[in-house]
Amino acid sequence: MLQDLGFLAFTLERVDIIMPTRKPRGRPLTRAQKTAHRRIARRRVRIEHVNSSVKRCRIVHDTCRLRKAGIRDRLLEACWALHTFRVRLTPWQPMV
């Protein structure tokens, strides 16, 4: 799981958390830490592109006032399925 520095206290059992290291006060990051940050940033950018693609379905982007149990989950699953269909329809783009 990719995790941002804003969620330092959040943990889950049996889940590996990938999180950037904080810069020490008054000292620069080491070369290895900078390389790790770049690797994490590349993955995060791809994930954010997928999220924005799913938000093309306006019902995901806007406030959902549907209160029935499980309907929001089904709605999001349908939007993810539409995203997957859209990505597979254009084969020149890599699957994320």
Largest sheet: none
**Count of DSSP E strands?**
0
Residues in helix, %? 40-55%
Helices and strands, in N-to-C order?
A: HHH
Detail the topology: elements first, then pairings.
Elements: H1 31-54, H2 58-61, H3 71-89
Detailed description of the structure:
The structure is a single chain. The chain is mainly α. It has one domain (5-89). Helix content is 49%, strand content 0%. It contains 3 helices and no strands. The protein has helices at 31-54, 58-61, 71-89. The radius of gyration is 18 Å and the shape is extended.
Which keywords apply here?
96 residues, 0% strand, extended
Task: Provide a quick synopsis of the model.
This protein is an all-alpha fold and 96 residues long.
